[in-house]
Each structure stands twice: as structure tokens, then as C-alpha cells.
Amino acid sequence: xxxxxxxxxxxxxxxxxxxxxxxxxxxxxxxxxxxxxxxxxxxxxxxxxxxxxxxxxxxxxxxxxxxxxxxxxxxxxxxxxxxxxxxxxxxxxxxxxxxxxxxxxxxxxxxxxxxxxxxxxxxxxxxxxxxxxxxxxxxxxxxxxxxxxxxxxxxxxxxxxxxxxxxxxxxxxxxxxxxxxxxxxxxxxxxxxxxxxxxxxxxxxxxxxxxxxxxxxxxxxxxxxxxxxxxxxxxxxxxxxxxxxxxxxxxxxxxxxxxxxxxxxxxxxxxxxxxxxxxxxxxxxxxxxxxxxxxxxxxxxxxxxxxxxxxxxxxxxxxxxxxxxxxxxxxxxxxxxxxxxxxxxxxxxxxxxxxxxxxxxxxxxxxxxxxxxxxxxxxxxxxxxxxxxxxxxxxxxxxxxxxxxxxxxxxxxxxxxxxxxxxxxxxxxxxxxxxxxxxxxxxxxxxxxxxxxxxxxxxxxxxxxxxxxxxxxxxxxxxxxxxxxxxxxxxxxx
Length: 494
Known about the structure:
Radius of gyration: 23 Å
Strand content: 15-25%
Shape: globular
Number of domains: 3
Largest sheet: 7 strands, parallel
Helix content: 25-40%
Structural class: alpha/beta
Number of strands: 23
């Protein structure tokens, strides 16, 4: 198969492989001759499109023609422009779709004292302020002997914040860091401070709220003579506590999985993203939970996604989330459509609407049960939408903070990073998997474009793979010790 015509109303199709000029093609009974070379992932016009008319893909307008576009020619940034603006019209046209009925499934995870499930039993060092980043790294380096038995690893997550911040930015840093402290994958946590930072220990504990003193400990490095000796002593005690947890069988209904895309290409919305959507529907049908973020990459596809809001109240929260994010752009004097990236465009994504319509495919067809603020905890089972930017590391950190056990990250161009939660990289095309499989890419969804798997088949396979990772199989990012955080900020630095 050389082309895919995604929706019957589309006036473009997408090339599943490089198509030389002169190639005669047929898709959905429509005959078209390529009048020029069409790169893989890019669009070809299936009919003449007049200047000012909409380009339709996914059954949705994704661009406006700048000029007449002849049938068989390449449709991309050179002959179309976005139709987005800072304002938008949203309407609640509630839709409900049937979910699949998979057989009950389980994974081998950890059961915490508070009843929550976890898929890793790690020791985490959370720097309260960036000044102690290197102390945290040294503590990780000199205490690797603690990683044994049921303890899966010892990690820290450096960041530059916690001081020289005021107001909402300081609160947001505290909110994000304390959310990580509460993450169930951490069997023991050392919160490491300096002693003179704006984010004081009292403020940090206030943001953290109630905690288990066996699981969470604190060290202010200015208060002790030898911070490495004292930190190592505390880590040993935390390791003794965390060692009491062993893997046991847990229903798949207790999994919380984040969904993210980055380095997207023209196949993202055709292969990997809808494959994740099929997975999401299956996990939710089993009683589990998924979380979708990247609000700016919902712009232009909001009505497609928000029609599945379970109630009018959830819909209103979703619209407020989008409008708040648009105002964030406006406050900084930026247009809302300054996206996709150069790499996205090279891969065949033309406008933000094009990108967004592909991005929301990760949400499958389940009802949206809740809308979460930045770093707010997941409290409802089902599909949740999370406020956060499109930036890969910021949004993956946000997904971890809300309680996602792992993150499914789809990509057409590849990226090596990992969040604190196990991060599964899913390629949109087999060429990327063949190039970076075993180094960056854990799972290939390019088989859909190759014609060797259907989306339902790959959804089943992805569910099985997720359960293996939940049971202890390490992702490539974990194997290569790639774990980072990035905190969303909007204020001044003192």
C-alpha cells in the first residue's frame, strides 16, 4: 500500500512511502497520478483544491490553500497556511463509542502501604533546590550497592530551580517536586535541600502534606558536617524499608499510563498515535487509567476530542484549559499556531491543525472523565486530560508527577530521553525502528504502514508489552540510565 485515505471526506491522502513523480496510484477507489515527488508521510491532493478552500485530513480542516492546488501535487507548507487564531468556537456535541472487551489481565507489581500499586521499587533523591544537584549525583554514585534484591534502582532528578523564584513559580516548583515525592514507583525518597533557598523545608513540607516518615526523609546539607556520610546513612535506612516490598500479582485495572508524542511525522496520526489510542481503549475497558497531555497540540482538534467529555462540567473544564493556554501565548506576545517544529514539517506535518488531529488520536475513543491541572494527581479511572505544554521533557515530567506508572511516547524521528517513570518509545515507521531499535525505540508501530498489522492487532500487542514493562521489563531509556525532569515556569528569576 502506497497511500492512505484516512477519512472519506478528505481531499488529500498520505504517502506511506516515498512516491516518485509519474506513479499511478489508487486509494479508496480514487485514481491519482503523482505529478511530483511525494515524500513519505507527506500529503498528495486527490482533487483540485481552489485557493481559499480547506484542505481536509482526518475528516477535519487542517489548512487553507494559498493558491490553486492541482490533483496529484504535493500539499505542504509551500502552498497552504493555518486556519487557527487565538479565538475558537467550542460546542458540546456529546458522543459515546463502544470499547473493546479484552479478557482480564494482571501484572507483577508492588503494593504500597497506602494501597496504591507501583511498577518499580526505586530509591529517589529529590533536590529541593538546584544548588545540591551535584551532591545528589554523588550520593547516587557512591550508594549503588543499595540496588539489590527487590530494589530496582537509585536515581536523582536534577533541576535549576527552588531558589531565586517567587510567587506562583515558586509554588509550582514545590508542587511538582512534592508530586514526584509521592510517586508510587519510589519505595523510598530522600528530599535534599541546601538550607538558604526560597523553597524552604517548611514550605516544601507544607506542599507535600501528610507523608510516611519511613518512606520519606529530609536532609538539609548546611546543617551537617558531612552531607555525603549523612545522606548515605539515610539512604541505607530507606533501602531497608523499601526492601520489604516484593512483586505480587495486581489487576491491570490499577495501571495509570501517560500518553505523549514528540518528533512527530506525517505517519504519527496514522500508525503510532492511533495504536496508542487502541491501547488506551483496552486498558480503560479493563478498568485502568490513561492520561493525555500537550494542550497546544490539541489546538484545532478540540471539538474532535472534547465531544467525548463525559459530562458538560468536564467539557467546560476542558475548554477553560485550552483558553487558559491560549492566553498564556497571548501574554507573551506569541501566536498560538507557532508549531509544528522544523522536524515535524520535514516529516510531513504541515500546520498545527494537522499535528493536533494526529496528536489526539492517542486518546482513543473512551470518554474523558476528568481534566487535571499541572501536577494535579489522578483521582478518576478512565481517560484524563492533563494541562501541560507540548515540550517533551516538561510534559513527560508532568505526566510522571500526576502519578503515571509509565509513559508511552510515540515518535517519527526518534529521541533518547526518559522521564522518571519508565518511558516506552514507539516508532511511527519501520525505518526508524530499524535504525534506532535496540538503542532508542522499544516498540514498532510502523507495521501498520507496512500493511503487516492492523491497528487492533497492534493495540493488543502494545497492551501485552505494557504489562511486561509493568512487571519489570526495562525500557531502553531505563537500560541506558536516561531519566530527566523539567519544571514548567512562567515567572521572573531573582
